Amino acid sequence: MVTDNRLTMCWEMGGGATTNSEGIESGSAVTATGGTAARLLAAARARRRLSQRELARLAGVPQSTVATIEAGRRQPSVAMLERLLHAAGFRLATDLVNTLRPSELLARYHRSAREVLARYPVTRAWLPGSGDRADSGLDLVVAVRPGARAAEVAGLGEELSGVLGCPVTITTRARSPEDAALVFERNP
Do residues 114 and 96 make contact, with C-beta atoms less than 8 angstroms apart? Predict the structure, then answer.
């Protein structure tokens, strides 16, 4: 998963997690922060108590391949890393996690977001000042035209989420919340 602009890769297996005196984790999931294949491969091999030669034999590659990857002298392809981890009994799992603040996403995709808002009975939309962190979704406060029903704005959050690429929570309100920036106003 991508977190704080670093790549974290994780591979999984059953069982509880423990860490030995050398800091090598064993258990249901192992995570190597910093994104190096060398760390991942060395930790996987250590958890299975495999020598480089044994892992290479299981993966059908020369021992020198394992050695150069673990030494950091070679960056393997994703396919090769998956092959080696699979030979050790692990599966590589990666995720994308947003690293942009919701206000940055809204600024970047402002035109598309305005087009979405214009298709709904929204008269104004505000971005509250609180909660604008990269690890959070977008909280948007909207005012709807008088007489509009909740069902008329039901798909707004999902549609905005598709445009912005982050979770969107919509709250309706008649007036501007305190400490909020106006991001949309329908022309009369």
Answer: no
